[in-house]
């Protein structure tokens, strides 16, 4: 990372310290050397890039005050996340406390075990001075519990030593908030991918953590992706990269940044030196590597190749884009595909993952009502705010977006006899919109430009495809597209298995319906999400035994179901349907997949 500073704008300086570990409080001081003469405006972001939901981070500011030359300066609150200081002649100091008790990758968390924060949660934006240099002094906590803590961040060091407390620098506010910070007694290992240092940082108790295997496998993924985007130079777009990982009892998620990613995972998903060696990757570890692959691919796709709506971000309001199917969906397509290309899994394991994705898309009727373009635009109010009716109302731009990528890849390969692929489109996007995004203050890509680029690179006219599958809600013809490349897609749903067609949630031992699929047995009988099942034909129903109870009956049989809705006991006559949950399998054809292997994205090269 270059440490270039904009000399036209004065430096903005922050200091931050974990003030109260048991109370989960960070203390932040902001120094503005040349505040606006009519009163400096300060604002905290309402959301964090990569997580498309208004988070209201300012609600975690516990107290705030300002001073100048030793005298208090009044602060006027303009809205829920914006303040204005009274005009002052000299430097302005702003002191505030931030409550940090969100154990996720998108906010801030602090206790006696570690400290973590994203800049969007703790650094007030100095309105009008965002383009100048920003420094931050990360101070060592005074609490004895933090005596041996280190610091992990991709922020360039100013006076701090690597992994140490001290001062760091960013060229501007956008860069400052794009480098999360982890503090604690973390496990640390380093590897190089095509010459670029990469750190894997793991916070949390993980007995017998196999860091050597993590480094080996992540190196394969990273080098594969670097070579994908820069096949000639194999040059990464960053000078250093960090995988910041919080290991917990149960958790999963990641958030991309320009030179790092923040991850949370179950400690059981991480490799152990004590575990027996197996040929196949354990499911949990495979899921973790897929997460790492996904977030790393974002280094190019969304952190540098951006939709026009994100260039620049407006972090105070929603930034709507109809292109998340490209930036999240295509990333979801390539994340598992890169595991194949890196040699970490074979085609059978890849097909199993792909089958789960296809099944998840086909499971909900929402796919017939909302296109992936609409899903992208409405991410703020629908995908990120899912309720009990989500399966019947929306489609995921992640999962269906990944299948759009697969279908486009297969279509382009088939119609050009392998002369062009989706890889070529991604490389063109990178070269034209991503490669020089930060150095040149680049711009994002529009939906029209995306579609035109597909036509240009493939030599095809793909408008009808976009009309049907991106702007429209038609199911993708995956079986038809996969057959010529030697892959059979089959739906082996258990139609003879009796089903209520619900998502059975758990409430203690009880079965509380988390969703009722429209058109299914429960829906037609009048059951609703939130109902707690009590009995089926007079026998107690629990989350554990519901399937066994229903298995005593044939499809078409009518059973009496008792359930509590709120505090009212209700009875329903339910005619059981066959299980409508898709059971998708993908297998190589009888010829072992040799037919069409040259055109198959996952085939060995």
UniProtKB/TrEMBL annotation:
It comes from the Bacteria. SMART domains: PDZ. It comes from Rugamonas apoptosis. PROSITE patterns: PDZ (PS50106). InterPro entries: PDZ, PDZ_sf, Peptidase_M4/M1_CTD_sf, Peptidase_M61, Peptidase_M61_catalytic, Peptidase_M61_N. Residues 486-550 form the PDZ domain. This is M61 family metallopeptidase.
